[in-house]
Amino acid sequence: MTRKALSAAFVLLVATLALGAYAWYQQQTGRSGEGPVGGPVELPSTQGHFSLEQLEADQLAVLFFGYTHCPDVCPMNMAVMRQVLQALDDEQRRRLVPVMVSVDPERDTLEHLEEYVGYFGEAFIGATGSPAQLEEIAERYGVVWRRVEAPDSAMGYTVDHTASLFLVDRQGEIQRRVLYSPTPGPLQAAVEEALGDA
Fold first, then answer.
1. Which CATH superfamily is domain 42-197 in?
2. Would you say residue 53 has pLDDT above 60?
């Protein structure tokens, strides 16, 4: 067999293995590769019943799934959201609604959430719900989390979770998904672009 034929056979083998691995991933996760579909979010919140449908036509929610006992990623994401809000003009700020959805309803009561989000600004909304409600919403948004026992910690357990931010309109359509960053640049760019498109 010539070198060219061997190279072609090798490329074909790699492609076949890649397709097989992708098919296995789809089967295991139940996902088609199309990404998060978004959709309605209706939960008890620190400002009463919260629903994306309550947003005005030109507003977007910045959704973040986290929990108040998170030692690093969550306060960093919240601080980034606050920095982006502060950098906007008054009209842009009115059009952006920051919402933290807690995936730790066992500890994050609405009273505790209200105290926590209050540290970041009056505009912030904290929301949570039953495990079933949260799991249904999280599945649609491509968010995963898992409880990790920490018997040697005073907290008792931590929660590993997706750290992305979602810019979502009142219909639940995801306008932008922003990967975690400790700096406000990525979210700032996504917000300005999304608000310009809306």
1. Glutaredoxin (3.40.30.10)
2. yes
